[in-house]
Design a protein that fits this description.
Belongs to the sigma-70 factor family. ECF subfamily. The chain has 187 residues and is an all-alpha fold. The protein is built from seven helices and two strands, in the order ββααααααα. A two-stranded antiparallel sheet has the order 1-2.
């Protein structure tokens, strides 16, 4: 088996097969700094953020056989793992607030953030899902649903009747829901 597998025949860049050390190193080089920044924003502790990144790649390597490039890109998959690891770290911190992340009772910054950057994670997931629907549905959704433009205006711009554009938005949203469910995103 080759070190890389393709997402869809010729439409995506090759994704590394994380069963080899070389592929894990390449994935770390490509995504490690971004994962670190994500964890640091959530935990506000450099050591804990480094631990998160290490744990993400350890879990990715251990479960490499469960990575399916047809469902999500490597980046999306790694960030989903990171999200779970950050939640685990936060839960540990909440149960032991004075001993985790170097916090003491009189520290002015308070406990670490209890949430995580849902908007960034959602944007990546939506971007990935949008890349999997037809160009017509994607254009209709982006212009009307995400940019908030009136259907009539977008329909004229795209040279289709308003009803057709509304159908594209409806079926585009329906397709997006299915794709996001396949990606493991819960509503």
């Amino acid at each position: 088996m080759s070190r890389f597998t393709s997402r869809r025949a010729g439409t995506r860049t090759a994704e590394p097969d994380l069963r080899s050390e070389q592929a894990v190193r390449a994935a770390y080089t490509a995504h490690g700094p971004e994962l670190y920044r994500f964890a640091l924003r959530q935990l506000r502790d450099e050591g804990a953020a480094q631990d998160v990144v290490q744990e993400v790649f350890l879990r990715a390597w251990r479960s490499a056989d469960r990575f399916d490039p047809e469902v999500a890109s490597l980046r999306v998959w790694l960030f989903a793992i990171a999200r779970h690891v950050v939640v685990d770290q936060i839960r540990r911190a909440v149960s032991r607030p004075s001993s985790t992340f170097g916090l003491v009772a009189d520290q002015p910054h308070g406990p670490p953030a209890r949430g995580f950057d849902e908007q960034v994670m959602n944007a990546w997931l939506i971007e990935e899902a949008l890349s999997r629907i037809s160009a017509e549905h994607r254009a209709a959704l982006v212009e009307t649903y995400f940019r908030g433009r009136p259907c009539a205006e977008v329909a004229v711009e795209q040279g289709v009747p308003t009803g057709t554009l509304r159908s594209r938005v409806f079926y585009g949203l329906k397709s997006l829901r299915v794709i996001m469910e396949e990606m493991g995103v819960e509503p």
